[in-house]
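Tokens in:
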């Protein structure tokens, strides 16, 4: 197939472009080289430098294309609400322009980079009340170091469990809201056109080529940048936040497999299926880089959630996707791998 990869010169997109070419696909890389992801330029120029918000650029890029892998987006927590128009413009307007162009060009297959952030908090159980949905954590509790969400019925601290794709979606940050809007737009497009959309809800992606320490980068790159500078990683809250860290090469393979998804809209967790706390990851990376141990700061951000761990079963059953990189192996590689910028 001839495949357009939007954001194809970025961290995840560049790995996807490589694996698609390795499997015989003709890849066209479309990228705006946004400074949030390319602060010092891209290691390789895109085939087409263009912005997904520009209908004429998108129309030209879609000529002769069989499928689109849509990675172009503003990611991360950002700086503050001044970033809000940029997130909505790049993520939601850009996706709308792309989908309209695909409909006009009669291109019926899309792989969408979504995110675990659409869930807000992950899945929880109360020892007394069973499965419950926690309210947003209060600033008063966070300031007092009460980081675990309480049961909304009895006040008992909750136990986290794996979240599956049928869970309630409740974005709790600007970025999360834009990723969920992308899913809704793609779902509407699939219903109207009969096309196929695989929305891949990436969990915490790490690996070679991550942007360096910026407000738009992932926690692994932030920790890695600190360690490179001889500083201890600064771990927010108490370090007990549970996450699923998945290597970028596994994420790229998930995109390859998702090209065969059935018509209609379908969401998939892209995860390792293994749970690690943020503190454990920081400690493992510090050891791999022979750096100072992490410092647990107690600081917090209002948009952060406590625990999000993934059920990998749907992606395994329907796409044949299984993450192959163990975290300890991936971090050992990541400790010396090049970063962007």
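Residues out:
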């Amino acid at each position: 197939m001839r495949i357009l990869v939007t954001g194809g010169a970025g961290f995840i997109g560049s790995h996807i472009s490589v694996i698609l070419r390795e499997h015989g696909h003709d890849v066209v890389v479309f990228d705006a080289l946004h400074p949030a992801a390319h602060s010092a330029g891209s290691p390789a120029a895109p085939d087409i430098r263009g912005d997904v918000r520009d209908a004429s650029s998108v129309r030209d890029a879609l000529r002769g294309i069989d499928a689109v892998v849509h990675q172009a987006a503003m990611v991360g927590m950002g700086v503050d609400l001044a970033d809000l128009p940029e997130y909505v413009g790049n993520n939601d307007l850009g996706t709308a322009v792309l989908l309209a162009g695909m409909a006009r060009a009669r291109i019926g297959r899309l792989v969408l980079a979504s995110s675990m952030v659409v869930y807000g908090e992950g899945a929880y159980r109360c020892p007394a009340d069973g499965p419950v949905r926690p309210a947003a954590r209060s600033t008063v509790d966070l300031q007092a170091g009460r980081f675990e969400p309480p049961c909304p019925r009895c006040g008992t601290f909750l136990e986290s469990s794996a979240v599956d794709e049928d869970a309630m979606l409740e974005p709790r940050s600007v970025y999360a809201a834009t990723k969920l809007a992308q899913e809704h737009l793609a779902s509407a497009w699939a219903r109207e056109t009969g096309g196929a959309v695989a929305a891949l809800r990436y969990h915490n992606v790490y690996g070679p080529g991550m942007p360096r320490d910026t407000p738009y980068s992932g926690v692994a790159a932030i920790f890695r940048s600190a360690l490179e500078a001889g500083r201890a990683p600064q771990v927010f809250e108490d370090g007990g936040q549970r996450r699923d860290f998945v290597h970028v090469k596994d994420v790229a393979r998930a995109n390859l497999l998702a090209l065969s998804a059935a018509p209609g809209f379908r969401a998939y967790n892209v995860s390792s299926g293994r749970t690690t706390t943020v503190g454990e990851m920081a400690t493992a990376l510090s050891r791999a880089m022979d750096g100072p141990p992490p410092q647990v700061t107690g600081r917090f951000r209002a948009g952060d959630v406590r625990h999000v761990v993934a059920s990998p079963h749907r992606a395994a059953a329907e796409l044949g996707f299984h993450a192959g990189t163990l975290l300890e192996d991936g971090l050992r590689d990541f400790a010396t791998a090049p970063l962007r910028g």
